Every structure is written in C-alpha cells, then in structure tokens.
Amino acid sequence: MFENVEIEKIQSLTEEHREYLLQRHGTLDLDPLPSKDPADPLNWPSWTKLANLLTVSFLCLSGGFISAGVIPANEMIAESLQITLQQASYVASIQIIMFGWSPFFWTPISKRYGRRPVWLGGVFVSLICNIGSALSKTYGQLIACRAIGGFFIGAAIGMGSATVVETYFSRERGKYMGIWTSLTTIGPPLGGLSMGFVAQHLDYTWIFWICAIMNAVQLVAHLLLTPETLYNRDSPPTLSPLRNQYLSLRRHNPTPFTFTDLLRPFTLSLTNPTIFLPALAYGLTFTLVVFSLVELPQIFIPAFHLTPQALGLNFIGVLVGTLIGEQAAGPLSDWWIRRRHAKIGRQPQPEYRLWLSYIGFVLAILGLVLFCLLTQHLAGAAEPTYNVSPIVGQAISGVGNQIVGTVLVTYAVDCHREDSAEVGAFVNMIRMTLGFAGPFVWPDMIEGVGLGGTAGVIGGIIAGLGIGGVVVLQVLGVGRR
C-alpha cells in the first residue's frame, strides 16, 4: 500500500523513470515522488544528504553556541565594560531576538536565490562580527556586533527544517528533523559549558576569537559540503549538477520580491492552527531551557560564588538531556508512524504523531519544578552549599523539550510540506521571542513569588496553552488542514 503518493502519479511515470526509481530506491512507495534526475536532492547518495544536513545543523548549533557562550563571562564583561550584570546578560539575549526574526527576511531571499548563498553569506558575516566583538571597546560596539552577527547567522536556525524536507522522504523526517532540532538545542548549553573554561583561564574576548575560528571552519565546510537543495521538479535545471549545486548564483524563482513576502510566515501560520499551535507549544517548552541557562549567573553566582568555569559546568544538564531526548524522540516518532501504517494499511494522519508529545510535556514541567525547588532549597539555606541536584532537574527538562520539539516541528512540516521554510521561520520566531522576553520577566517573578512559585506559574502556562493546544489539534486538526 502506498503512502501519500497518488496512484495516478505512479501510473503516469515513464518506464525509464520507474526503472530509475526502483534501481535507486528499491521501491515506488516514496513520498514525495522524486524525479529521474540524479541531481534531485531526494536522489542524492545517503552520505551527501547526511553531510549536507550535519553541516547546516552545525551552523544552527553555532548560533546558540555563540549566543550562550558569553553567559559564564557575564560578570567579567560587566566589570570590563563598567555595566551591570543585567546589562551584560543582553549580550546573549540580543542574538536570541535576532535569531527569531531574521529568517522572515532570509526565507523569501532563499526561495528565489537558493539556500546555499544564504548559508555562505550568513556564516561569513558572523565570522566578521565575532572578530568585531573581540575587538569591541565599548558596550555599544559589542551589542552592535552581536546584533548584526545574530541577524545573519539566524538564517540557518530558521530554515534548517527546509533542508530536511528538501532532501528526505516523509517516512524519514522524524529521525532527521530530530538531528536538526537536537543540534540546534544543544548549541546554548554546549557554548556555556565549553566557554566557561575559556573565560576562566583566558580573557573573555577569547570567546569571540574561538567563535570566529569556528565560523571560518564552517565557511570551508559549507563551500564543500552543502550543495543547493532548492530544486524544481516541474522545471529541472539545464546546468550540469556541479554548476547548479555548487557554482551557480542564479534566480530559482522569478516571482518579484514584495513586502508581503516578509509577512507570509505570519499570514500562513496565524491562519493555520496546525502551525500556530505547535509553534506556541514548542516555544513555551523551549523557554524552560532558556530559563535554566540565562538565570544561572544571577542565581548561582550570588548564592554559591561560582567561578566562570564552575558556572559553565552547570550547562551540562541541558546538553545531556537534549541528547537523551533525541535518542527517544526521532526514532520513536518514526517507529510510531510506521507501526500505525502497518496496522491500518495506509499512511496515518499527521495528528497521530502528536500522542508522543505528552511524554515530553510531562518531563519538561517535572524537570522545571525539580530545578526550581532544589535550587531554592540550596540557595535559601543559612549557609548556601552547592550540589548538582538542580542540574538533574535541568536535564529532565531538556529531555522533555527535545521530545516536544521534534514531534511538533515534524508534525507542522508534515502538514505544510511546500511551505517548510515558512513553517521553520515561524516556529523559530515564536521560541526565540519567548526566550528573549523571559529574562525581562523572570527576575521580578522570582523576587515576587520565589523559585517555587515561578515554577508553578510557568508550568501552568505550558500545561494550559501547550498541552491544551495539542489536544485541540488532535480533536480539530484533520478538519483544519
């Protein structure tokens, strides 16, 4: 039984096309149905697809890495530039908001001129801005460099989902979407963990120099390993595969660029609950990761007097949790769909995937509560003494966030495959905007109701809007697609 491929399409294939697909893939049960062109990204060798995905995903990782890498050095930055610790936290958060909104600009550009020029341009400007950050002498210069760098490298974070859709079949998307989401998620904790050592043993400016070196390596990798994935099967390119995929800068889509293109991710998502509700649910859960990372310096440094290196080690909880969560989320999501497919003899509705998200929500909220209550207990003691117990809660929350992210992003993309870039841009905007707004609210909330009360408020919002939104999708989603 075929998945979502129309029988008429298969019957209309030429004999040559049939033979090519059977020889290349071993079946005609493919969704979407590729062309007979070896340059079609769906027909690429597995190693080419994986190398492309990993290179793009590592660029997504580097965005969070560069953003959060400065967090352990907040106190050093505040002393050097003569600003407050709160102002120093904006050196990280300014990039978060840029990551969220810049894909609205880059998505229509990439749909006309291809993904590859955007990747290359983004990583090059990020390289220049990291050098500028290292050389900055004032707070204003540093913020400007960070904002510009975040705007350009944000293209990768918003459009990574399009790479998965353009190179993999639907039955594989859960696994490979999970690779992209997990590498995107571990960027911040990996940056905080590793750069804590740098800030402790070198000068904080070396954080920016190391990020610049990383961008330089990525630039070479993108030149060699990321061929163009934008491909029109109705009008295949006439250039050779080498020129088309690596050497050509041409317009793929002749549609004129208009201001409404910038608004398309908004208009598409706000009129489709199958995009808006998953984006909101994932964005709310993602704030738990941001909360446990951004608030660390402001809670742990005054209470436990941790050095930058010791503070950075506390980022390992989210890192480990994310990796564990992805081992469950991606393969489990695809297995869940294949099992249902075998049982009913046809491709199940995308809403069937959503059942797995409830596991993630429970773990995310449970981890938040443990992190907040254990931190409150340790910091509120007569003689505060540090131990790693709150980080266990942080790791549990990381597992839950990764499950929720992989399941819900895959669901939204499955419902809107032709608009995967817009879906990715909107999902990214929601989670980054919520992550940016949180640090302005959380300190006052913690001061007013304590860490335990903060956990209750945030957990209640996620339960009401996040879980509630998934329930609505399962009840009404089929009719609204």
UniProtKB/TrEMBL annotation:
GO molecular-function term, one example from the UniProt record: transmembrane transporter activity
Membrane disposition: Multi-pass membrane protein
Domain Major facilitator superfamily (MFS) profile: 52-481
Cellular component aspect of the GO annotation: plasma membrane
Keyword annotations: Membrane, Transmembrane, Transmembrane helix
Highest taxon, organism lineage: Eukaryota
PANTHER family: MAJOR FACILITATOR SUPERFAMILY (PTHR23502), TRANSPORTER, PUTATIVE (AFU_ORTHOLOGUE AFUA_2G08910)-RELATED (PTHR23502:SF2)
Pfam family, one: MFS_1
Keyword Membrane included in the entry's annotation: yes
Subcellular location: Membrane
Name the UniProt record assigns to this protein: Synaptic vesicle transporter
Residue stretches spanning the membrane: 50-68, 88-106, 118-135, 141-165, 177-200, 206-225, 274-294, 314-337, 358-379, 391-413, 425-442, 454-476
Record carries keyword Repressor: no
